Amino acid sequence: MRDRVREIMGQQNVKGLDYKILILFFAVLACVVLTFYLASKGETRVYTHLFYIPILLAGVWYHKKAIYVALFLSFFYILVTYPLTHLSVDVFERSAILVVVAYVIGLVSEKRAKVEEELRETKDYLNDIIKSSADAIVVVDKEGIVRSWNKAAEDYMGYTADEVIGTPNKKFFADPEEADKIMEIALREGELKNYRTTVLNKDKKPVHISMSAALLKDKKGLPVGTVRVSRDITKIAELEEKIKEKRDNLDLILESMADGVYIVSGDYKVEFMNRVLIDEFGDQVGGICYKVFHDREEPCPLCKNTEVMKEKTVRWEWHSRMKNKTYDLIETPLKNIDGSISKLTIFRDISKRKRIEEELKEAKDRYMVIFEHALTALCVIEEDKKISLANKEFEILSGYSREEIEDKKWTEFIAEEDLERVNKYHDERRKGGAPACCVFKFVSRNGEIKHVNTCIEPIPGAKRCIASLLDITELKMKEYDLRETCEKLAELDKMKKDFLNVAYHEMRSPLAPIVGYASLLERIEHTDKGRKYIRNIEKCARQLEKMINRMLELARIDSRKVERILDEFSIQGVVREVVKSLEPEAKVRKQKIAIVIPEIEIQADKLKITAIFTNLISNAIKYTHEGGRIDIMVVDRGKDIRVCVADTGIGIPGEHLPKIFERFYMVDTSLTRKSGSLGLGLSIVKEYVKLHGGRVWATSELEKGSKFFFTMPKRQK
Amino acid sequence: MQKKRILIVEDAAYMREMLVEMLEQEGKKYEVVGFAVDGKEAVEKYKELKPDLVTMDLVMEVMDGIQAIGEIKKHDSNALILVITALGAPEQRKAALEAGADEYLWKPFTVKNLSDVLEKLLRKREE
Q1: pLDDT recorded at residue A5
Q2: What is the rounded distance in angstroms from the CA atom of residue A652 to the CA atom of residue A154?
Q3: Cβ-defined contact of A512 to B87 (cutoff 8 Å)
Q4: Which of A498, A501, A504, A505 best probes binding to B when mutated, by most B CB atoms within 10 angstroms?
Q5: C-alpha closest to that of A144 among A171, A123, A162
Q6: Predicted pLDDT of residue A668
Q7: What is the DSSP secondary structure assignment for residue A563, as one 8-state letter?
Q8: Cβ–Cβ of A523/B91 closer than 8 Å?
Q9: Which end of chain A is more exposed for a tag (fewer CB within 10 A), N or C?
Q10: Chain A residues with beta carbon closer than 8 angstroms to that of B89
């Protein structure tokens, strides 16, 4: 730019040469002509004073070159005046003066020209700066009137220089008071630096500027005005606003974090602490971190500040002795606006997690011990049915070492015929269904088969299962034995039944001729003795028949062949009939039988009810001393009746009471027992009562008597 | 009055003998016209002798009494059959009666039991 200006200036000089040299030429010519004229008139006194005019002009314009003009004019003067003066001292004197004057003038002129040139250059330079400055440069005089307005000012204010020069500057400020204030500061301080204010452009839109001002002084040093350099910082201000907003947001985020957060500068100064950390360590903002957090006089040996300052993110665990807590720290560099780096540290209290981790480890260890030393074989089956873990018992069960087991699939241990069933069970267990256990044949080393009972339990939240296996081979063997025994028993039972059925028939058959011939004999024998013998034969035969009948009946009950044939009849009538049939026997023993029975019709199998009463009453007669008493009482209880047959007999020992209704149970099995009973009567009573939906029981007191009770619904279902 | 002609079906000899004795006790009422020791023979004898009444045992070789009753009744639906057996279970009694037996006498029995049941049976028939 400057060069360009110079070039233009140079051209101007060339143009100037034309008229200057002409004037000079004519001035010199005039001097020459005048000298000739005066010399021609014989005038020796040529006025050399006139020569000063061209010399002066040459000196002013061409500086030292004026000496050539002076020399030319002197030489000419000497030449022209020679015929008149013949080289007088005077002539030489004048010529010399001319040359000297020219020289002096040239010298002075040259110096001045140089100063002027420099001055102009400086001025041009300044103008260049002002013109090309990106900052607005405005000159305002003491009265606040705008005196200068550069291009940049035009650009961001929208006013052209012509529009504003000569007008007051107040109108530009958003707050007009500010114009006076700036002037006041400038006058007082002599300058103004980075003063931020808001001005309004031609469209009345606010423009944020940063202004610096310097005082302009006159030659006497008195202030005349200010020159103001201002810069449009609207964008910077916006950016700053955004940065501030971001920083505020960041602070807000950090503040609301559940973790502790603090920011430390490169020189360990705490710049920020969030609420969590303040609650824990107190507000230490402004403090030196190693002092306030660690109670040290110099940076901690573990401190990662240096690393973070190299823009590295560091994560480490720190145990605070002051707090007896463990923290998980993430430290990361944070670039500040000024380019410096601070350290942002996120502080998480992991003491609890540490403790839980320790507890978890302990629990895991504990369960591993249980797993390992359990008395059942245990293994963990992965989703692909591979065994990932097995305990000592499993080793024993399978015969393989742990390493061998943990390389095998679970299915390899299952006998082929059970595989499908066990897989199905396994799958269903995984879905949460299926029975708890499954028995299968386990193939251990060398193909040995073991019967195991397994329980597969899915591990909650994982796809694997844990299987426990119990070797039940021995049990299984026993079961086989038992089953075999059972089968044998069932067979035996059938044989027994068959045998009994035949036996009943075969035992009864010989009774027929005994009874039959006795009845025939009775007809032909007439002596009393003979008749008595016959009667005894008959009686014994009948007793035998009764016993056989009872056995048959019980056998039939056992095979559920006994049915009820229902009838409606008077309970009183039945009892009277029974008593009547047994009375002769009671009479012999001088016993008294009393009946207290209301008139009730019941629905039941009459034959069986008769049998019940016959049994109970004949028992009472049998076990009661001579002259004893037998009471038969029936109580109507609405839906059912309760029957009691009480005697004053020998009684039944307490330990026998609960068993007397059991089959073949005899209170007395000694040789001194009362003969004529197989212990079947009461069990038939019990079965018949049960058949009618009733209940039978007895109470007794030794040597005082027994009471037999039974209940029976009045109506059968 | 004409003697009632009776066929005794019984595998045990002593029983046959006793039955004869008992029937003789009743004097002129009954006449034993024949014996059979099993069901098959009983059917044959019935056809041959055409007795008024048959005493029938149930447990016999070759053909049991129940079958024999069926056969006889098939041949002569008016045949009078008295079952005399040691089998006493109600279902056995029921089976015999269903096969066509007219009465049932349970062993052991007295001479009176026999004459009572016979009289009852014959009276029923006459009615």
Answers
A1: 44
A2: 137
A3: no
A4: A505
A5: A171
A6: 61
A7: -
A8: no
A9: C
A10: 552, 556, 561
Whether A545 sits inside 8 A of B108 (CB atoms) is: yes
- Distance CA(A455)–CA(A466), nearest Å, equals 8
The single-letter code of the amino acid at B92 is Q
Residue A581, amino acid: S
Does B13 contact chain A (CB < 8 Å)?
no
pLDDT of A676 = 52
Q: Which of B119, B14, B36 is nearest to A512 (CA)?
A: B14
Asked whether B81 and B97 are in contact (CB, 8 A), the reply is: no
- Hey, what amino acid is at A431? K
Q: How many residues does chain B have?
A: 127
Interface of A with B in 537-556 (CB under 8 A): 538, 541, 545, 549, 552, 556
Chain B residues 29-58 with a CB less than 8 Å from chain A: none
Determine contact: B91 vs chain A, CB below 8 A: yes
Structure tokens at A609: 């009810």
Residue from B18, B21, B55, B64 to probe the interface with A (highest A Cβ count within 10 Å): B18
- Report yes or no: A519 at the B interface, CB cutoff 8 Å: yes
Q: How many CB atoms lie within 10 A of CB A591?
A: 22
Neighbours of A87 (CB within 10 A): 10
Residue with tokens 């009463």: A613
Q: How many residues does chain A have?
A: 717
- Can you say whether the dihedral through the CA atoms of A401, A404, A410, A411 is positive or negative? negative
**Beta pairing class for A146-149 and A136-141:** antiparallel
Query: For residues A511 and B107, is the Cβ–Cβ distance under 8 A?
Result: yes
Averaged over successive runs of 10 residues, the pLDDT of chain B (127 residues) comes to 87 90 84 90 91 90 87 89 84 85 88 90 83
Place of tokens 């000024």: A338
Local structure of residue A133 (DSSP, 8 states)? -
Q: Which numeric CATH code is attached to B4-126? A: 3.40.50.2300
Bridge-based pairing of strands A640-647 and A601-605 is unpaired
Question: Among A388, A360, A394, which Cα is nearest to A375's?
Answer: A394
Determine whether the interchain pair B110/A516 forms a contact, defined as Cβ–Cβ distance below 8 Å.
Answer: yes
A488 to chain B, closest Cα gap in Å: 28
Q: Please provide residue A547's backbone torsions phi and psi, each rounded to the nearest 5 degrees.
A: -65, -40
Q: Which of B18, B86, B90 is facing A516, going by the closest CB pair?
A: B18
Residues 6+ away with beta carbon under 8 Å from A47:
A34, A38
Torsion angle of C-alpha atoms A503, A505, A510, A515, degrees rounded to 10: 130
pLDDT at position A677 is 61
Query: Is residue A521 within 8 Å of A534, Cβ to Cβ?
Result: yes
- Token digits for A405? 């087991």
| H or E element in which residue A121 lies | helix A89-132
Q: Which domains does chain A have, with CATH numbers?
A: 2-127 (no CATH), 134-232 (3.30.450.20), 239-355 (3.30.450.20), 374-471 (3.30.450.20), 473-561 (1.10.287), 563-713 (3.30.565.10)
> How many whole angstroms from its chain centre is CA A121?
77
Q: Would you list the domain boundaries of chain B?
A: 4-126
> Rounded to 5, what percent of chain A is helix, strand, coil?
55, 25, 25
The DSSP code for A20 is: H
Question: How many A×B Cβ pairs under 8 Å?
Answer: 63
pLDDT of residue A671: 53
Q: Which residue ranges in chain A fall short of pLDDT 50?
A: 1-2, 4-16, 672
Nearest to A96 by CA among A77, A72, A74: A74
Angstrom distance (rounded) from CA A483 to CA A693: 34
> Nearest CA to A32 among A65, A97, A79?
A79
For the record, the structure tokens of A436 come out as 């708890």
CA dist., res. A132 & res. A120, Å (int): 18
Minimal Cβ distance to B86: which of A512, A517, A538: A512
